[in-house]
Every structure is written in C-alpha cells, then in structure tokens.
Amino acid sequence: MVPKAETFPSGIKALAYYVHRKGDGKTQQLGPKVWETVGEQQQILWIVGQDQNDKWASYAGPGGWNDPDMLEVGNGGMTAEEYRAHFSIWALAKAPLLVGCDIRAMDNTTFELISNPEVIAVNQDKLGIQGKKVKSNNDLEVWVDPLEGNKVAVILWNRSSSNATVTASWSDIGLESGTIVDARDLWAHSTQSSVSREISAELDSHACKMYILTPQKA
User: What 3-state DSSP class applies to 182?
Assistant: First the structure.
C-alpha cells in the first residue's frame, strides 16, 4: 500500500491514521495487525459498537485483532455495572487493552475493573479466538469464547431495562450434554464446582456475569 503524496504528504503513518479514523467496518480487508471495526463512539454508543465488532469475529486471530474503537471505562456516563459489562465483553472479544480514560483522574473503581487479572487473562489467551454472541433473547445475551486447555469463557449479560435471569445451556455454549464443569466467576473470584447442564445468573439491568468453565476429567 502506497499513500498518495498529494493527499498524505507525511507518508504511510498519515494514511494508517486516516484508515483507522474512517471506521467504515471494512478495514479488516486491508491487512494484518489491528483494525477498527466501528466509528468514533461515546459511552452511549459502546453497546452498538460491540454488536458491530461481533460481525467481524472471523477476521480476528493471532496476527490481527479487531478494534472496536475506545475502551470507555472511567470516562463517565455509565454505572459501575455497565463498565464491568463493557470491560468483560471487550476482553472476550480480544480487543486491544488500551486505557481510554485520563489515568491522572482514575478512581479506585475504574482501576479495580481494568486491572482484574482473571479477565485480562481471557483477553490474552494463547488461542487468540475472538469470543462471539451465541444467544440473544429479549436483550438477554450469552457470549462464548473458546480458551486454551479445553476451557471456555462465558458471559451472561442482561441488556434489558429490568432485572432478569440469564441462562446458558450446554448446547448454547458448545459443550456435550453430560459435561460436568467447574465454573469460575471472574468478578467474584469464586468457583462453583460440579455444574451440569446449564449455568444461569439473576442480573440487574445492564449487569453481567463472566465465567471460565473447566470440564472435569472423566
């Protein structure tokens, strides 16, 4: 790719910045490394950005990552639970972990959210597979991400305006019906042993639960 001198007199870096800023949802076709999958977004638009990013999951993997623009945790305009959901989906999607807020004004809640080592580990998993939405029913969603070691990350997300129970069956997740798992809650830092058939959680509006499911050995 060679930049047109009249349009990009400072060279390839200016062209790359221009492509990033366009965010037309087609930049995945231009090459490896990192590409933006949505346009500039504010807090009110980040959910739409995740939906758009989900459409391009097949393009992501080691050597090239989808970039749903800006991590909004700490920028104001959302509750702590909304920030938690934002960071969870961001990590599951293998999006670049670049802090988007002013670190000089970062509060303790923001720091605790974006520094959760268990959630970061999902983002940095060696398989490098972008997690995807596998179920959506009345704004109750299940997102799944295969991980190294036959494990799977699961997010139960309540995008509705009222409290609700979100459930993921083993068929939603891609597990055999008879599989028994240990379910690690990545935000509560607790483990539920010997879970079978499904996993569910009662969630406040816009809240989520994030788990790693580890199948028990027969």
Answer: strand
